[in-house]
């Protein structure tokens, strides 16, 4: 039975899809329309009681939370494809450290910007300019810290590409693309070089080709 | 001492790491920080945690931050010391623990952090609480706890029939929350309440709670 990933059009499921492609694992996708509220259907809530995307099925196992799911596949297929977890206890700890930085410091402001700028209009809501400005400032401070980190280390967890970098790709693409905020990345020399590197991986081109974003 | 935690016991994020150390019975040292003078926002602390947040952690040459990454590191490195907090007997079990750790971080922690800030942190600094925020966030927390109620009606702990980091990560904020006037949010949900009674009565949890007195 082939792995199934629900909600490929959106950003969080793309963490899982990127991981599967990097590991050379076959998968299918199932479209879920958030704007129609398909994530609140009873059938969907049976799989993911919080109604968020993604959901991933691997045989009998139903998984949710993209970061736990990408770690699962990276571990399950650790002997094939790209090593995404680090080899030593210390490397693994640094990967976990920087995945959590993405989750707790990077994601909240970039998610707020994505919602306000890209999704609010589609939902018939007015953009809140105050929220946009506050979150742009927060994100800028986070990117300043990344700039310092990436001036010492090619990738976030060290000298190897890992899930910590991968986890940033889907939402950063929204930032530099449809949100029109590429200068936030380009104006920071090391962040810019890191973004050019990780976004030019074949796995990302493949992801965008098979799972185009909703806008 | 090899294991050093930079932070204070009153901090819920530091508490997460301390609780893991207590559960595993590991020796450690708390390195105090002059938070009143913003030591955590300056060097040398920033070289341990560039975000200027607590805790930061050292174990010999290993230096990391983010409390949930630290507890994972400890549970992995010291897997055979004390109880197994990661469900290490199979990848499926570990992944279910991981999933509910993510739920704690994204679904539970977001409203809970705001509630505790309004109800406990602000008053401690003489700042007025915002009742509107408290009510809004309690409503969001209630919806999350409805899912927990359903989950805990089917299994004793969040990841299954064993206590794990998925449960442990909830403890520090709940220690504070259960001292507020809104604790009925927990006590009114029978399975969540039974789960809280169980995990809060663990000796390590009792010890942590004693050190979390403002």
UniProtKB/TrEMBL annotation, chain A:
Catalyzed reactions: RX + glutathione = an S-substituted glutathione + a halide anion + H(+)
GO biological processes: glutathione metabolic process; toxin catabolic process
Name of the protein this chain belongs to: glutathione transferase
EC number from the UniProt entry: 2.5.1.18
Family: Belongs to the GST superfamily. Phi family.
Enzyme class: transferase
Originating species: Corchorus olitorius
InterPro entries: Glutathione-S-Trfase_C-like, Glutathione-S-Trfase_C_sf, Glutathione_S-Trfase, Glutathione_S-Trfase_N, GST_C, GST_Phi_C, Thioredoxin-like_sf
Keyword Transferase in record: yes
UniProt domain GST C-terminal: residue ranges: 88-215
Taxon lineage: Eukaryota, Viridiplantae, Streptophyta, Embryophyta, Tracheophyta
GO molecular-function terms, A-Z: glutathione binding; glutathione transferase activity
Protein origin, superkingdom: Eukaryota
GO (cellular component) term, any one: cytosol
Entry keywords, A to Z: Cytoplasm, Detoxification, Transferase
TrEMBL record, chain B:
GO biological process: glutathione metabolic process; toxin catabolic process
InterPro entries assigned to the protein according to its UniProt record, in alphabetical order: Glutathione-S-Trfase_C-like, Glutathione-S-Trfase_C_sf, Glutathione_S-Trfase, Glutathione_S-Trfase_N, GST_C, GST_Phi_C, Thioredoxin-like_sf
Assigned GO CC terms: cytosol
Gene Ontology MF annotations: glutathione binding; glutathione transferase activity
UniProt entry keywords in alphabetical sequence: Cytoplasm, Detoxification, Transferase
Family according to the record: Belongs to the GST superfamily. Phi family.
PANTHER family: GLUTATHIONE S-TRANSFERASE RHO
Identification of the protein by name: glutathione transferase
């Amino acid at each position: 039975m082939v792995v199934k990933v629900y909600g490929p059009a959106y950003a969080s499921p793309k963490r899982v899809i990127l991981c599967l492609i990097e590991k050379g694992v076959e998968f299918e996708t199932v479209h879920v329309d958030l704007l129609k509220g398909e994530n609140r259907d009873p059938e969907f809530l049976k799989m993911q009681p919080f109604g968020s995307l993604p959901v991933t099925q691997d045989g009998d196992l139903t998984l949710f939370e993209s970061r736990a799911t990408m770690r699962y596949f990276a571990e399950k297929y650790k002997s094939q494809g790209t090593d995404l977890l680090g080899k030593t206890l210390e490397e693994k700890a640094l990967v976990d450290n920087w995945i959590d930085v993405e989750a707790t410091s990077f994601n909240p402001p970039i998610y707020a910007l994505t919602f306000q700028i890209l999704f609010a209009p589609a939902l018939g809501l007015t953009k809140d300019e105050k929220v946009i400005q506050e979150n742009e400032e927060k994100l800028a401070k986070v990117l300043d810290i990344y700039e310092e980190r990436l001036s010492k280390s090619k990738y976030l967890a060290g000298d190897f590409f890992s899930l910590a970098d991968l986890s940033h790709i889907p939402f950063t693409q929204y930032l530099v693309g449809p949100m029109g905020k590429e200068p936030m990345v380009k104006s920071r020399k090391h962040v810019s070089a890191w973004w050019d590197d990780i976004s030019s991986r074949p796995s990302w081109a493949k992801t965008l080709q098979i799972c185009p974003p909703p806008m | 001492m090899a294991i050093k935690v930079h932070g204070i016991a009153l901090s819920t994020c530091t508490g997460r790491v301390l609780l893991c150390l207590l559960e595993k019975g590991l020796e450690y040292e708390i390195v105090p920080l002059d938070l009143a003078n913003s030591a955590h926002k300056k060097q040398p602390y920033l070289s341990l945690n560039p975000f200027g947040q607590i805790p930061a952690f050292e174990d010999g040459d290993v230096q990391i931050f983010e409390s949930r990454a630290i507890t994972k590191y400890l549970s992995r490195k010291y897997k055979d010391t004390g109880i197994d907090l990661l469900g290490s007997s199979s990848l499926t079990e570990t992944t279910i623990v991981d999933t509910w750790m993510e739920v704690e971080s994204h679904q539970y922690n977001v409203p809970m952090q705001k509630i505790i800030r309004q109800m406990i942190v602000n008053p401690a600094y003489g700042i007025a609480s915002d009742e509107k925020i408290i009510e809004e966030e309690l409503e969001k927390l209630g919806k999350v706890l409805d899912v927990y109620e359903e989950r805990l009606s089917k299994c004793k702990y969040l990841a299954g029939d064993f206590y794990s980091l998925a449960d442990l990560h909830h403890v520090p904020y709940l220690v504070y929350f259960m001292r507020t006037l809104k604790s009925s949010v927990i006590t009114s949900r029978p399975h969540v309440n039974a789960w809280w009674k169980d995990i809060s009565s663990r000796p390590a949890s009792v010890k942590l709670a004693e050190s979390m007195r403002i």
